[in-house]
Amino acid sequence: MSLYAGIDCGTQGTKVVIVDSEQGAILGEGSAAHRLISDSNGRREQQAVWWIEALIEAFHQAVSRAGVDARRIEALGVSGQQHGFVPLDEQGEVLHSVKLWCDTETAEENAALLAQLGGVSGSLAQLGLTVATGYTASKIIWFKQQHPELWSRLRTVLLPHDYLNFWLTGERVAEYGDASGTGLLNVRTREWDRHTVALIDDSGRLWEALPPLKSAESCIGTLRSEAAEKLGLSRATRVATGGGDNMMAAIGSGNIAAGTVTMSLGTSGTLFAWSDTPVVADSEAIAGFCSSTNGWLPLICTMNVTSATSSVQALLEEDIEGFNRLLEQAAPGAGGLEMLPFFNGERVPPLPHARASLHNLDSDNFTRANLCRAVVESATYGLRYGLDLFRRQGIAAQEIRLTGGGSRSPRWRQIVADVMGCPVVCLKVQETAALGGAIQAMWATALADGPHQQADSVLNDLCRRFVSPDESTRAEPDAERQLQYDALYQRYLQRLQQAYPEVSL
């Protein structure tokens, strides 16, 4: 038995899976929730210590359920929510609560940086992508301006998964995939961009604070004694580079070669595909990130998916089962009820200050069922907007692999198939980011122990063994409903442009 652990530190909580590489099976899973600091000005933050507490709880839970000796775990791989800003001082203390990917308080700082870069075209030319509100760069600007005393103590800039790696190993490093979401990396060359860094800070402090970059298949070190003790692991346990949650979900969904499209119905909505060359898109909405498999991962992210449905669910005081029952009761189009689901602003299209709204209400259509249907449909339309951008870029979707909490709903899966006009299927392992972390840990360990092996071949073999579709979840588009949803989607776009004329369709 060869044991590995995958860790996914997401927005809502931390998940851990324990994997037996010889059996090709997940032996145990654990999870622990995170709190969120939120304000109407767009502030979305967490304390880094909450992640450590959740990691310890979820890890022990997973080990207990697996029924194994944790000291036999050979390596870990960490997935983390992208774009967060974790500032460390010389001693490794976190200087400020962590601004998250969904934080829009720094929209003005991002707009100023984008203007300095020469707008969208200048940003694409300099970095290979367009800096967006939510990326790490604007958070750094905000921190420098708002907290000059803390800025003077800054020694290291880390992302959330980098910070967990730091707590585990004491190493201050980054890897290409997650780093490409900072807005400070040239995604073509996979190097920190000195010009962009200097626009934010020309003193050299920020440049010196950027950690060295590691390739995806590397082990960055072994466990510190404190981390080993708290997790019940051997100090010899290796830690792989890990990556951002989307990059790890790509591995965990088998999205490691051209032709596969993954869609996540999570807190946010994501759509991504693998490429062996840098992707500099025609649309600023497509982020040409690096992958955590030494390729590239063009990605579109919307801000409101299960975060929007959860808001409606809470309003109606329904659990998941009750929400899905109501969803079943409403017909396509929600009786004419329309929603723009921008509870957290929006990234695609770029509307950081947008607010959610309901339209076309009357005494007949304003029902609990229609409200549930409207929020699910509108969240799905946002992802259809992204898929259409992909299609214009030449990225085809023959099949969509669905992940995230929303994918567990059969009705929502069918709505996705009908709206996208494409077959959809979930995977047997739902926790794709955590599984991706475990697979990457296996990959890095195999190459560390056998450096003459072909890296791509090892990864392909691991994904074939651990990633497989759950055919019981497959949904094919219904021809009649597809036509119906094509018309409803056009109605949604009209409503969107009426409310926000700046949106380009």
Key phrases:
505 residues, alpha/beta, Nucleotidyltransferase, domain 5, seven-stranded mixed β-sheet
Give a summary of the structure in a few sentences.
The protein is α/β, with parallel strands linked by helices and 505 residues long.
The percent of residues in helical segments reads: 40-55%
The overall pLDDT, averaged over residues, is 95
Gyration radius from CA atoms, angstroms: 22 Å
CATH architecture title of the domain at 1-82 and 218-241 and 431-467: 2-Layer Sandwich
Low-confidence stretches: none
- What fold name goes in the CATH topology slot of the domain at 1-82 and 218-241 and 431-467? Nucleotidyltransferase, domain 5
User: Main sheet, how many strands, which sense, barrel?
Assistant: 7 strands, mixed
Number of strands: 25
By CATH reckoning, the class of the domain at 1-82 and 218-241 and 431-467 would read Alpha Beta
Span between termini: 54 Å
CATH superfamily of the domain at 1-82 and 218-241 and 431-467: ATPase, nucleotide binding domain
Globally, the shape reads globular
Strand content: 15-25%
Structural class: alpha/beta
Count, helices: 18
